[in-house]
């Protein structure tokens, strides 16, 4: 299971009062299930090993980036991710192996990131965004890599030149990252099941690998020397919330043999 959800909104140039805000919202919801079950009446015999294995490999990346640069007043970035997964390897019937019997449930999360970013005003992020935008323009028309910076400097005007110089007294930046993930991994030999490894061993394994990351960043840039980028009152809020519940169980029932 691979999920990437991204939202980006940036106002790079001069903005009138009604267009001085930027909002980016990214929401992801995923339900993933992996089950391997040997039913009651089923019987498996092998001259070597038997593997009953349920595996779920997953990655999720949810991010939002909002930028109200130059004469912006409000920037809001919100990233929300919900992920529910269930992985189960279950034996109810009969397994007979001359070698080993392995009953294995595995949840492997290679990437788990929820990130929100909001910027108001003209600071380092805005300048980098502008330069990248100009650079990509010349790249799109096929300019060789070595000439990109030169063409950018020679021919593209400063996109912030000629701003209307409207002073915005207030600035608000808000970034919220919220992740709610539930992971259940179960490996079980159920009541009534019969598992035999005549010349080997029986292993009942349940494993979960996960490294969740949540982050929220808010920047408000104010410059007293630039009327268009001056803020008398500013409020910045950044909140990161992560709710992660992992349940991992290996069970051999008392009535199993």
Order of helices and strands: EEEEEEEHHEEEEE
Largest sheet: 5 strands, parallel
Query: Separation of termini?
Result: 35 Å
β-sheet strand percentage:
over 45%
Morphology: rod-shaped
- Determine Rg (CA atoms, Å): 28 Å
Helix percent reads under 10%
Low-confidence stretches: 13-18, 151-165
Q: Based on DSSP secondary structure assignment, what is the total number of beta strands?
A: 12
On the 0-100 scale, what is the average pLDDT?
78
Note the total helix count: 2
- Oligomeric form of this entry? single chain
* Structural class by SSE content: mainly beta
Give structural attributes.
mainly beta, rod-shaped, 12 strands, four-stranded parallel β-sheet, 257 residues
Report on this structure:
This protein has 257 residues and is mainly beta. The chain has 2 helices and 12 strands, in the order βββββββααβββββ. The protein has helices spanning 124-140, 148-155, and strands at residues 2-11, 21-38, 43-46, 50-68, 74-91, 94-97, 101-120, 170-189, 194-197, 202-209, 213-220, 233-252. The strands form 3 sheets. Strands 1, 4, 7, 10 and 11 form a 5-stranded parallel beta sheet that branches. A 4-stranded parallel beta sheet has the order 2-5-8-12, with no helix packed on it.
Give me the secondary-structure topology:
Blueprint: E1 2-11, E2 21-38, E3 43-46, E4 50-68, E5 74-91, E6 94-97, E7 101-120, H1 124-140, H2 148-155, E8 170-189, E9 194-197, E10 202-209, E11 213-220, E12 233-252
Parallel strand pairs: 1-4, 2-5, 3-6, 4-7, 5-8, 6-9, 7-10, 7-11, 8-12
Helix pairs in contact: 1-2
């Amino acid at each position: 299971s691979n999920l990437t959800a991204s939202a980006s909104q940036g106002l790079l140039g001069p903005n009138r009062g009604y267009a001085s805000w930027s909002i980016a919202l990214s929401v992801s919801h995923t339900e993933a299930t992996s089950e391997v079950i040997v039913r009651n009446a089923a019987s498996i015999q092998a001259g070597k090993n038997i593997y009953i294995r349920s595996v779920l490999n997953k990655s999720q990346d949810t991010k939002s980036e909002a930028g109200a640069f130059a004469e912006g007043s409000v920037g809001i970035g919100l990233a929300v991710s919900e992920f529910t997964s269930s992985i189960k390897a279950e034996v109810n019937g009969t397994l007979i192996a001359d070698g080993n019997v392995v009953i294995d449930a595995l949840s492997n999360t290679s990437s788990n990131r929820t990130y929100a970013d909001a910027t108001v005003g003209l600071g380092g992020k805005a300048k980098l965004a502008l330069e990248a935008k100009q650079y990509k323009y010349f790249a799109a028309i096929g300019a060789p890599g070595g000439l990109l910076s030169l063409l950018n400097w020679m021919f593209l005007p400063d996109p912030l030149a000629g701003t209307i110089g409207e002073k915005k007294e207030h600035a608000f930046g808000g970034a919220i990252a919220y992740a709610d993930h539930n992971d259940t991994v179960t490996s079980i030999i159920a009541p009534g099941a019969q598992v035999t490894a005549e010349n080997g061993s029986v292993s009942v394994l349940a494993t979960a690998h996960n490294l969740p990351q949540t982050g929220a960043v808010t920047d408000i840039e104010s410059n007293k020397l630039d009327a268009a980028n001056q803020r008398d009152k500013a409020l910045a809020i950044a909140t990161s919330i992560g709710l992660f519940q992992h349940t991992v169980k290996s069970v051999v029932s008392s009535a199993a043999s």
